[in-house]
Amino acid sequence: MKNTVIIYGSTTGTTENVAHKLAKFMGVDEKDVVDVKNIAPSQLGNYDNIIAGSSTWGSGELQDDWFDFVDGLKALDLPGKKVAIFGCGDETMGDTFCGAVATLYEAFKSTGATMVGAFDIVGYDVTSTPAEIDGTIVGLLLDEVNHPEATDLRLRKWAQLLTDEFAK
Predict the structure, then answer these.
(1) How far is CA 134 from CA 74, 118, 131, in A?
(2) 87, 94, 116, 167: which is deepest, by most CB within 10 A?
């Protein structure tokens, strides 16, 4: 997909693998699938569509490589850009499940970007998640620990949703 970048932060390789699968499903060139430690926030101006993914650690934190990037986002204005967020987590972690999605969502939203990619959480045994903001799950939440069999189907559905959103 033209003018789309997929940025990921991954410690164990799970989020990286998801990013590459998503690229395949969306037709995003592999050169545009980038580890967050290898891209500067200032480079986002080269893209119309930004997809960001992180695993969640500890009590709902971002993957470590995201922290400097998120700090750099504070200086950017990204109106006209469309941003979607995905995350990997473990639903048994209670109310911190995919908390990194909420952190990335808020960081990108503060740049004036248009946030897209809200997705359903049906099929998880989760009573609450930080990724539910104003009654909406603000991105794709994946659990490769407890539901790896559901990942490809969810990714395909989300890829189609994003393809439609990015075409608008």
Answers:
(1) 22, 12, 10
(2) 87
- For residue 153 the two structure tokens come to 């189907």
- Determine how β-strand 140-142 pairs with β-strand 33-35: unpaired
The residues spanned by each domain of the chain are: 4-163
User: Looking at the domain 4-163, which fold is it?
Assistant: Rossmann fold (3.40.50)
Q: What is the mean pLDDT of residues 121-138?
A: 82
Interval 6-48: pLDDT, tens: 999 999 999 999 999 999 999 999 999 999 999 999 999 999 9
User: Distances in Å between the alpha carbon of 44 and those of 51, 58, 67, 106?
Assistant: 11, 28, 16, 17
